[in-house]
């Protein structure tokens, strides 16, 4: 059955109504906090501050900007690896993040910063909102290319809500340490996305669609996202750590773990290939696993060599997951994980939670000093010892998983409703369904395309503007012919006729344009 993917009214209605709702809610509830408001001059006297430079903005803003780049550029470009879904990867990530940060400021504000009927926000709120949206970006990676922009917005609305409640339970009720979000961001985001993907399973997708792959240039764009994420991850894990030694340790530990995971990723990627070649999928993703896994223990006394060990293990586990586990999840468990979020965020997130629990349980005054131990952990004399704190840290993993599985199931069922405009199996991973793009037709040849064209052949026809044949090395010798403008069926037929006149030995078929042009 042909699905109605027209977004002309659905998407504008959602965007307009929800943004108007944000304006009203912000007007009623949101105000500047003491460090952003006009009473800063009086407030700094109560804190014995002698200069405006002691405003929290100057401590937090550099980290905020790094995290902000990770959310919009890092995650956005990481998702551009699909050969015909680059616009959707970076564009829909932009959309969900822009809406998500607004809703996160409200949800987190009501739970953490609500005072006298108002939500007081400053630069730290912006960082926490970005963290919340980071979990949505992770979940989006699981359904990338298979949902409509309206479904993306619906998923963002519910996931931000669930994330905020889960975060409140872990940080305010269980009092766990998770500054870098191994549990709250990565574990929750990954398994929420995988659960939604499971509910939205498309059994015939692999048979009807062969666009879930990459090209040379799309992998290169995705690598840009990887490098931005890799460079700024120390800021991500240390952004909301307490000032001083904890924040310093978080940056150092993340730095070391990331570096270690790169080497083991490269080693395993080469080892599992029969010809010893590297896989760009592994390099784009598994090299980041070390940053995920030290999110919880980053500000603890993990030690530099301990961080290297964590990165070493995660690089191996993540790469093997991409190589062997992802195909099993798709074929045996109905989990079609587009971006491999299970291997980059799910498993490393759980490892990070375990590392945090062990590190907390092993904490001693000899290592932290009495003052440092009190500052690091919310220990209550006679109630919480380091070992008990470790137990609470471990419990945080299971709480995050529970929120992810239950919440993901409910949201997945909602997203299965037939009126959200999701694409058919044939049109998944295709930008032209929701974006204005150049028209593509496909020619299939008997043998390698370079036997027929060298990439410089030109076609001239009265019905056509000048058009170039781009002979790209894609599977099954399918060669995209990029038209400068959308064309009619008769014009496409004319092109095929001209090509046949040139190379009568060519055996070619014309695929239907995604917008029905030919």
TrEMBL record:
<feature type="transmembrane region" description="Helical">
    <location>
        <begin position="252"/>
        <end position="272"/>
    </location>
</feature>
<feature type="transmembrane region" description="Helical">
    <location>
        <begin position="391"/>
        <end position="415"/>
    </location>
</feature>
<keyword id="KW-0813">Transport</keyword>
<feature type="transmembrane region" description="Helical">
    <location>
        <begin position="279"/>
        <end position="298"/>
    </location>
</feature>
<feature type="domain" description="Ammonium transporter AmtB-like">
    <location>
        <begin position="23"/>
        <end position="417"/>
    </location>
</feature>
<dbReference type="GO" id="GO:0016324">
    <property type="term" value="C:apical plasma membrane"/>
</dbReference>
<feature type="transmembrane region" description="Helical">
    <location>
        <begin position="304"/>
        <end position="325"/>
    </location>
</feature>
<dbReference type="InterPro" id="IPR024041">
    <property type="entry name" value="NH4_transpt_AmtB-like_dom"/>
</dbReference>
<feature type="transmembrane region" description="Helical">
    <location>
        <begin position="346"/>
        <end position="371"/>
    </location>
</feature>
<keyword id="KW-0325">Glycoprotein</keyword>
<feature type="transmembrane region" description="Helical">
    <location>
        <begin position="213"/>
        <end position="232"/>
    </location>
</feature>
<keyword id="KW-0812">Transmembrane</keyword>
<feature type="transmembrane region" description="Helical">
    <location>
        <begin position="67"/>
        <end position="87"/>
    </location>
</feature>
<feature type="transmembrane region" description="Helical">
    <location>
        <begin position="12"/>
        <end position="32"/>
    </location>
</feature>
<keyword id="KW-1133">Transmembrane helix</keyword>
<dbReference type="InterPro" id="IPR029020">
    <property type="entry name" value="Ammonium/urea_transptr"/>
</dbReference>
<dbReference type="InterPro" id="IPR002229">
    <property type="entry name" value="RhesusRHD"/>
</dbReference>
<comment type="similarity">
    <text>Belongs to the ammonium transporter (TC 2.A.49) family. Rh subfamily.</text>
</comment>
<dbReference type="Pfam" id="PF00909">
    <property type="entry name" value="Ammonium_transp"/>
</dbReference>
<dbReference type="GO" id="GO:0097272">
    <property type="term" value="P:ammonium homeostasis"/>
</dbReference>
<feature type="transmembrane region" description="Helical">
    <location>
        <begin position="183"/>
        <end position="201"/>
    </location>
</feature>
<dbReference type="GO" id="GO:0008519">
    <property type="term" value="F:ammonium channel activity"/>
</dbReference>
<keyword id="KW-0472">Membrane</keyword>
<feature type="transmembrane region" description="Helical">
    <location>
        <begin position="94"/>
        <end position="114"/>
    </location>
</feature>
<keyword id="KW-1003">Cell membrane</keyword>
<feature type="transmembrane region" description="Helical">
    <location>
        <begin position="152"/>
        <end position="171"/>
    </location>
</feature>
<feature type="transmembrane region" description="Helical">
    <location>
        <begin position="126"/>
        <end position="145"/>
    </location>
</feature>
<protein>
    <submittedName>
        <fullName>Ammonium transporter Rh type C</fullName>
    </submittedName>
</protein>
<keyword id="KW-0924">Ammonia transport</keyword>
<comment type="subunit">
    <text>Homotrimer.</text>
</comment>
<dbReference type="GO" id="GO:0016323">
    <property type="term" value="C:basolateral plasma membrane"/>
</dbReference>
